[in-house]
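Hi R.,

Here's the chain you asked about this morning:
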Amino acid sequence: MFTDLEGRWESYRVRTIPVDVNLESGDNFGFNFSPTGERLDEPFEIADGVIIPPGTYEWIRYSVGWEFAAKRKLNGRVRWGFGSFLRGNAQRAPDRWQLDAFTARDLSSIGRA
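And the predicted structure, written out as tokens:
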């Protein structure tokens, strides 16, 4: 939490992780949520002509995800974030997939004589 000189909160974020499971296989899955707040004392321009008016803004963001162990041919993590943001809604798409180096090398030779 950040406060101004009078001790009033200006912004906060509380990350709560009620589910975070590590499996024996090395895989992991979880769920978290983050209550967040911003208090603006004056208008805030986030882009040319886009102004957020003064006021108190509070929202909750959620995230669910699965991480596949590095030992797998297809490994990496998939995470989806969603929830409210300021006075609207926001979503975050799954962020990455990767193939391990051995598989990538094998796949690069497909179709070659």
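Residues 47 and 53 are 13 Å apart (CA to CA).

Let me know if you need anything else.
M.
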